[in-house]
From TrEMBL, chain A:
Family: Belongs to the GST superfamily. Kappa family.
GO cellular component: mitochondrion; peroxisome
GO terms of biological process kind: glutathione metabolic process
Gene name of the encoded protein: GSTK1
Entry GO MF terms: glutathione peroxidase activity; glutathione transferase activity
Lineage: Eukaryota, Metazoa, Chordata, Craniata, Vertebrata
UniProt entry keywords in alphabetical sequence: Transferase
Catalytic activity: RX + glutathione = an S-substituted glutathione + a halide anion + H(+)
Protein name: Glutathione S-transferase kappa
Source organism of the structure: Sapajus apella
Span of domain DSBA-like thioredoxin: 7-198
EC numbers: 2.5.1.18
TrEMBL record, chain B:
Protein name: Glutathione S-transferase kappa
SUPFAM superfamilies listed in its UniProt record: Thioredoxin-like
One of the protein's GO biological processes: glutathione metabolic process
Reactions accelerated catalytically: RX + glutathione = an S-substituted glutathione + a halide anion + H(+)
EC number of the protein: 2.5.1.18
UniProt-recorded Gene Ontology molecular function terms: glutathione peroxidase activity; glutathione transferase activity
Domain DSBA-like thioredoxin: 7-210
Keyword Transferase appears in the UniProt entry: yes
Family of the protein in this entry: Belongs to the GST superfamily. Kappa family.
Gene: GSTK1
Keywords annotated in UniProt: Transferase
Gene Ontology cellular component list: mitochondrion; peroxisome
Active site: S16 (nucleophile)
Amino acid sequence: MGPVPRTLELFYDVLSPYSWLGFEILCRYQNIWNINLQLRPSFIGGIMKDSGNKAPALIPRKAQYMANDIKVLRQHVQVPIQFPKDFFSVILEKGSLSAMRFLTAVNLEHPEMLENVSRELWMRIWSRAAEKAGMSAEQAQGLLEKSSTSKVKNQLKETTDAACRYGAFGLPITVAHVDGQTHMVFGSDRMELLAYLLGEKWMGPVPPAVNARL
Amino acid sequence: MGPVPRTLELFYDVLSPYSWLGFEILCRYQNIWNINLQLRPSFIGGIMKDSGNKAPALIPRKAQYMANDIKVLRQHVQVPIQFPKDFFSVILEKGSLSAMRFLTAVNLEHPEMLENVSRELWMRIWSRDEDITQPQSILAAAEKAGMSAEQAQGLLEKSSTSKVKNQLKETTDAACRYGAFGLPITVAHVDGQTHMVFGSDRMELLAYLLGIFCGPGGCLSSPYPQGFQEEVHH
């Protein structure tokens, strides 16, 4: 029997573009590194409130930087990500509470579908190319109803609180459990550092043996 | 004659720990990549003011994250960086204006010494928890970098002239025009285009923009150039 896989928890929100990039990179590495990737749908609005931080987009130069950064990362990370036309309406007004409650319900009832459904939601918000996640209409409807139960609302709150206890002031955060220690890294641009903490090899954001999924 | 080196401008302030990390990484790569590294001493206080941003340390969880992050990066980047004991006083009260004016003067008169003197100032504040605001502190850093006492004293006097003050302001304004909301920023001039990257954790992306990154299977993504990776890991 080989060494025990290290648990990596990825706390994310589909409202967060960098969460999508971190998610895709880790999904690619989950079959390359000796890790057990656990997806943790969280609510970025709750993290901002709890930490006293504010969305970077509220600082004009940060919004400008992000817009450009996403363009470059689209090529570098090979994810079809682009800024929605009405960025401020999407990010700052519409928010993501229903979507993240929905993903919480998916995680409770059909965790094997969480990766695909998360990706589908990111595609809708952050890309023009949306596909079907493979969920039947009945399944989706059932989960949508479950999304507004206290059980699901509380689960989302608990996951978000867990991220806060790990020290989150934004998303994505990746928490690596290595040799009895816990390391939290913020952002999608810290995967090389994560590899260092895991003692694994970093091969860039598009490692070989990646499924031609996108 | 080979291809023309690409110009990389590194805007930094010795008050900024991530500036030190970015600086050391780029200094290592300046003789490996086909680049012309231009150091641009800037004033982070001015950038914060102009952009409407605030020092991350003011958010408690960000301060906590930084403290931990710096510990890990110390090993990974192999720079002897550590938090000063009274972090808030050093960063938020004492600041870096005199030090950055001094480095501006160095850059005007003895640019070949800028790298060394910058490093010695970082070593004071971000390695040995020593002052960088008093004249004696700045002179000590300059002398440790190899400057004579007379040279250092002369530059210290020049630091308070309008010429030097204006130069620091101009450099800081240039960073702002590139879109800076903090430091370090690295500006790469590639094939007629300008790319600005923020932070010391974007060097892989910078390599990609410079067309140096090799892609799947092998990449110059380590903060140590290939061949030194064995020394870096824990």
